[in-house]
Amino acid sequence: MASGNRERSRDVLIVGGGLGGVAAALAAARLGRTVLLVEPTAWIGGQLTSQGVSAPDEHPWIESFGCTASYRALRNGIRAYYSRHYPLTPDPARLHLNPGNGLVSRLCHEPRVALAVLHELLAPQLASGRLQILTGWSPVAADVDGDRVRGVLVQGVDGSRLTCMAPYVIDASELGDVLPLVGAEHVVGAEARADTGEPHAPPTANPGDVQSFTWCAMLAWYPGEDHTIDRPAGYERFRAGGHLSWVQPHPVTRVPRRYTLFPNEPADAYPLWTYRRVLDRSLFAAGGMPSDLSVVNWPQNDHVGGNLLDPDPARATAAALEARQQTLSVVHWLQTEAPRPDGGIGYPGLALRGDALGSNDGLALAPYVRESRRIAAETRVSELDVAKDLRPEATAYPDSVGIGLYRIDLHPSAAGSGYLDIPCCPFQIPMGALIPVRLGNLLAGAKNIGTTHIANGAYRLHPVEWNIGEAAGVLAAEALETGVSPSGIRANPERRAAYQRRLERMGVPLAWPRAHPI
What we know:
Layout: E1 6-9, E2 12-15, H1 19-30, E3 35-39, H2 69-85, H3 111-128, E4 131-135, E5 137-145, E6 148-156, E7 161-165, E8 168-171, H4 178-182, E9 186-187, H5 193-196, E10 213-214, E11 217-221, H6 235-240, E12 247-249, E13 256-260, E14 270-271, H7 272-275, E15 277-279, E16 293-296, E17 302-303, H8 313-336, E18 350-352, E19 374-375, H9 383-386, E20 400-404, E21 408-410, E22 420-422, E23 427-430, E24 442-444, H10 456-459, H11 462-482, H12 486-491, H13 493-505
Parallel strand pairs: 1-7, 2-3, 2-8, 3-4, 8-24, 13-14
Antiparallel strand pairs: 5-6, 6-7, 9-19, 10-17, 11-16, 11-18, 12-13, 15-16, 20-23, 21-22
Helix pairs in contact: 1-3, 1-11, 2-3
């Protein structure tokens, strides 16, 4: 790396402040390690905050089991925040508050509330000085000595640069941005069926077969008002492409499905407003909330016109800009041309609420990323390990570092692949999936673990990403404490067992209960 830059050294460097990065930082700092967390946006929290997906995708048993203690503390903290600060209507029968009453999750809430609770969880570590967080910084280069990463050069939004040195580096970035910088062996897109043996893998590998991403927006509804935005660039193209329509493919059956905006209009259509609603005004005292808030993360604004992992940076940037225009086009269509059940067109009272997303334009600070670069790991999880149609139970891993459950859910890609949405067994997260095949002090801490393109569809969701990051943070602390590399800890049954016991003491379940009702 170039000389003349400022330097900062810590025990653990975490690149990326999404859910995995925050969980890794919290775990390592709680274990007494000094941690530097760098994040390119202004908000930590990734898909739960800066990407706008604050109606988290979780399994049906999340309220009672199936996540780590720290993730449960996050969920409990979000509910407590509303109870402390918001004018909720009294309801003695309400056991689990769902502030948005959204259809997709049992805990739909505002992104900025999640941000506040994440900072609450991290506050003791920040106060002690064990944790430092730098927002607005992105990785641009790395210093590698053989099979070890010495440091990562990050650049701030103002162009200043900082060399971050650490014995252990965790890549928890949304796109696996550290992997190419350090020369880590990794995979992009879909593997070939001959490589993985997966029945749903394509005949040949395709690096361009990356799940679509979405640039989310936040909407409020003010009947009788007019908040129509200017017609965005590319509007006609998105309309011609079928994006500006109530009819979209069903993700499971792939047959056309009719959507609508509000419930019961018509009754047989799926209501998008309540699908990812994050604030339900009916839960609050009269006059407390002038409107619901709902996130636009719908089939209409899944972007398949390019991908963020394109090897040509100019094309990747163009794809991001197009995704923004697509979402704005969906909003403009809703305001001006969307057919209403009363025979009219448009809902001009829909208003972009960028303030609820930390932005000035109504859109999230960052795109919602479903698929990252993935390390070539000591263990690779595939469809064969977790698909319910292929096996009665998921592969059992003696080196488990956590658990998860979600359908194998792949969205369409720029390469032309359609939806893949199939049942998945309750699964474990193998330690070997966090460890690269070669680099000794690099760990994967988010969606970049050793899964295939298909298995990634189940391992990419909120509680699993958090668990991955937490396991990586504890593993880095364990390696520093013992002087043994992560690979060495995994290879030694006694050291691995000690690491797993530490995870369990911290509230990380390593296996599903044998009597679970799934």
